[in-house]
Amino acid sequence: MARVRETNAMISGMKPALQPGVWHFCTCAPDQAVDLVPHALATMHEAEGLSLILPEDQAATAGLISDMAMSMITLQVHSALDGVGLTAAVAQVLTLAGIACNVVAANHHDHVFVPVKDADTAVDVLRALAMRGSA
Fold it and tell me: What is the pTM of this model?
């Protein structure tokens, strides 16, 4: 699959898909990291500790359940890491819909985390954006 770099092509090709599961953004102490990292969807080293995106059951087991349960929407376009505008367009339409989002970019796709209660609406908003093909 070729990387898509052009802004409108990324937007029109994003095909947002709600993924199963509930996720929590957590921070763990160094002594917890060894047990949690294998379960983490993603990690990021920050000054405050190791941040992890954990499935709800693992976060609960570790006593790290957050007050913000999140759903993950995968943008199924193979967006280029140097592509410009996809994240901004997604954030803009979700902002206009009153939906908080956290975007995590990986090597092949962008993943949008939204509050669980807003997941279905967020998917609808993102699909409408894709149909328009531009912000």
Answer: 0.93
